[in-house]
């Protein structure tokens, strides 16, 4: 019996560059972009220090296409994914290793006007709009299973 394990990365940060959407020779969409996370703290002498970490994010298939449409440099994003490590040989012949987060789902935080312009949707919140995007991996519920499909427009709040 295999033991249970968990490989999960959760970040809230800002996009460091516009997403780069490409397609593999087989036609699979792949999108890469960077996210920066910041932290600050006060030292014993009272001065404030800051630290920035940069993360490489990779999205595949339909999620990659959504990233290409919805994300732009500077936007704040909440994302979830899994860590992957890979090695490759650089152009100079040196062996290199890289750490990436393979995206599972994300939420984009943006002002309502900018969001409405890019997606054609109306802003619900007055100051800030969030877009929730999740990778569609589950099947639609069947009527035979007794599960009911809920339309988000039918929710009164």
UniProtKB/TrEMBL annotation:
The keyword DNA-binding applies. SUPFAM superfamilies: Nucleic acid-binding proteins. Pfam families: SSB (PF00436). Keywords: DNA-binding. Residues 131-146 have a biased composition (Basic and acidic residues). GO terms for biological process: DNA replication. The keyword Signal does not apply. Residues 118-157 are annotated as: Disordered. InterPro entries: NA-bd_OB-fold, Primosome_PriB/ssb, ssDNA-bd. GO terms for cellular component: nucleoid. One of its GO terms (molecular function) is single-stranded DNA binding. Homotetramer. NCBIfam families: ssb. This is Single-stranded DNA-binding protein.
